[in-house]
Amino acid sequence: MFFRLPIVKFFSRLLNRATITVALVLLQAGWLLWAFSYLTTGRIWVNAALRLLSLFIVLYLVRKDEDSSYKIIWIVLIGLLPLLGGALYLVFGNKAPSKGMRRRMQSVEKAHTGDLAQQPGPARQLAGDHFSGLSRYVARYGPFPVWDKTQARYFSCGEAMYPKLLADLEKAEKFIFLEYFIVRSGKMWSGVEEILMRKAAQGVDVRLIYDDFGSLLGLPKDFVVRMERHHIRCIPFNPVVPLVSVVMNHRDHRKIVVVDGSVAYTGGVNLADEYINAEKRFGYWKDAAIRLEGAAAWNFTVTFLNVWNAFRPSETDYTPFAPTPEQLPETSDGLVQPYADSPLDEENVAETVYLNILAQAKRYVYLYTPYFSVGQELLGAMKGAAKRGVDVRLILPGIPDKKLVFRLTRSYYVPLLRAGVKIYEYTPGFLHAKCYVSDDHVAVVGSINMDYRSLFLHFECGTLLYRNSQILALRDDALNTLRKCREVQLSDCRTNLLGTLLDSVLRLLSPLM
Questions:
Q1: Residue tagged active-site, from 286, 432, 441, 458
Q2: Where is the PLD phosphodiesterase domain (predicted)?
Q3: Does residue 361 share a domain with residue 306?
Q4: Are 157 and 262 part of one and the same domain?
Q5: Can you give the pTM of this predicted structure?
Q6: Which of 67, 115, 211, 260 is catalytic?
Q7: What are phi and psi for residue 26, nearest 5 degrees?
Q8: Same domain, 30 and 124
Q9: Which of 85, 189, 332, 406 could make an S-S bridge to 148, C-beta 3.0–4.6 Å?
Q10: Are strands 442-446 and 460-466 parallel, antiparallel or unpaired?
């Protein structure tokens, strides 16, 4: 009995859902490679057709309006594998989610476009401002309006946000909506779960959307059943199935909480212990979040309900979830514009917001990001801003959570440093915050990393702040964080021939990582 217990634990960990899924995917991949080899061996016409397909795919990619780095990797892959490359692109090259997901989500979003109409008052307040064009862009192509009558509070770490989040959940009277990439059993989730169960028992409408891949290893098998039993309705987003499919790339990376329509949270903080430093994984976990109270919470309410009703239709009228006039603060703290981005369309809202801030900066731009892997547009915008005299400072982790991705991030250092961008690595641990702040005038706090997945593949969200007091709070946090960082110099970036080759391969493969 003494020996059986550790053995049972070992096999229960080994034979979990994640390992079984990986094993089945590898088995499928092996079978597909064998089938391809069998079909092409000695079959001249099959080989000729596949080569012709690859040629047409390359010509199609040259003309396609798409991120250049993504096109380059596929053109190189087709050049290396002229028989297999074209067929691989047809199966895996389409970045858009599955037709079923697109149809459901776009149908709901289209039906509720009117719920996100821009109100004239807040828009007029930005008239003449050099960031008014950015606000109009987000309002039109998001579409997510800008709001006044909203108070904001910036949190420089997860453990500062957590008690306030619990207090807001305790005050819920009508509904609680949560949408997260990672939910993991532990101290942080236990504190949230206890309140959710109690509130649901009191009749509060409690709903949870969590990404199935992000939470794959963190939740028990009966999680949904247990939640539903306590009247907490759940949607595991894009459930992981053991299939060789690009559809699994599209994850819900958002972090959203909405309480009674008037209070909302977003940022980089997931519902797992490392985000409040209750668990040490990579040194101190530095994150960021923002709390909104007032009219601007509506953007996140609609964002959540659109996802919910795409997969679990519950209502067509969102009006009961809107904040009442009594819930709105009497004074405004600047203007606030929460927004979301998704791979459902060709509009890269998250990247465009970042590009606009860099293009219009006059004095400084400070950037937090845990991962840095960008295309020529963002890379050129950062270099261009620095070359025209803007103080551009990129703040990254000092202790990485993914060593290969960190190596990829460092491969960008030399061109950025030569252009005048200052790069800092946060020495106490892992920096997971995703923020921009510029000129004491505009800022972004959200879930959006500066990498290909966040900018093009994931469902993301952020909050734009204009003339808001929390812009200075974020700026001061960045300046304080810089004191705990090591500034990277060009002399730190020397590498040997093998290192240079590895960096080149990683840069080439970055859109697929």
A1: 432
A2: 248-275, 427-454
A3: no
A4: yes
A5: 0.87
A6: 260
A7: -65, -40
A8: no
A9: 332
A10: antiparallel
Is residue 26 located within the same domain as residue 104? Answer: no
Tell me whether residue 362 is one of the annotated catalytic residues.
no
* Burial class of 169 by CB neighbour count within 10 A (0 to 12, 13 to 18, 19+): buried
Q: What is the pLDDT of residue 127?
A: 77
Alpha carbons within 13 A on the beta-carbon side of 386:
20
Our answer to whether residue 260 is catalytic in this structure is yes
Q: Which of 287, 439, 477, 503 is catalytic?
A: 439
Does position 56 have pLDDT exceeding 90, yes or no?
no
Could you tell me if residue 273 is inside a domain?
Answer: yes
Q: Which of 333, 361, 389 is the last residue of a domain?
A: 333
Q: Is 171 a catalytic residue?
A: no
The answer to whether residue 253 is catalytic is yes
Looking up residue 213, the CATH number of its domain turns out to be: 3.30.870.10
Q: Both 108 and 88 in a single domain?
A: no
Q: Is 100 exposed, middle or buried (0-12, 13-18, 19+ CB in 10 A)?
A: exposed
Structure tokens belonging to residue 485:
């960082």
Looking at the fold, whether 370 and 508 belong to one and the same domain comes out as yes
DSSP state of 285: E
Q: Which of 333, 365, 392 is a domain's end point?
A: 333
Structure tokens at 215: 């939470």
Q: Please tell me which residue in 250, 255, 383, 441 is annotated as part of the active site.
A: 255
Asked whether the beta carbons of 308 and 207 are under 8 A apart, the reply is yes
**What percent of the chain has a predicted confidence (pLDDT) above 70?**
86
| Long-range CB contacts (within 8 A, 24+) of 100-107 | 101/238, 101/247, 101/250, 101/310, 102/344, 104/310, 104/311, 105/306, 105/307, 105/310, 105/342, 105/344, 106/344, 106/345, 107/310
Residue numbers of the domain that contains 22: 4-92
Residue 1 confidence (pLDDT):
47
Select which of 71, 383, 434, 458 is catalytic. Answer: 434
Tell me if residue 230 is catalytic: no
Residue 458 domain-assigned (yes or no): yes
Q: Among this protein's residues, is 255 annotated catalytic?
A: yes
Structural domain count of the chain: 3
> Could you give the C-alpha distances from 251 to 181, 232, 345, 371, 389, in angstroms and in order?
8, 22, 15, 16, 38
Q: Quote the CA–CA distance of 361 and 440 in Å, as a whole number.
A: 10
Kindly report, residue by residue over 15-34, the tens digit of the pLDDT. 555 565 556 556 655 655 66
Does 356 map to a domain?
yes
Q: pLDDT per residue over 318-367, tens digit each?
A: 999 999 998 888 888 899 999 999 998 889 999 999 999 999 999 999 99
pLDDT for 448 equals 97
* Per-residue pLDDT tens over the stretch 481-490: 999 999 999 8
Say which of 149, 253, 383, 441 is annotated catalytic. 253
Mean pLDDT of 291-316: 97
Same domain, 251 and 385: no
Report yes or no on 135 lying in a domain. Answer: no
User: Peptide bond preceding 415: is omega within 30 degrees of 0, i.e. cis?
Assistant: no
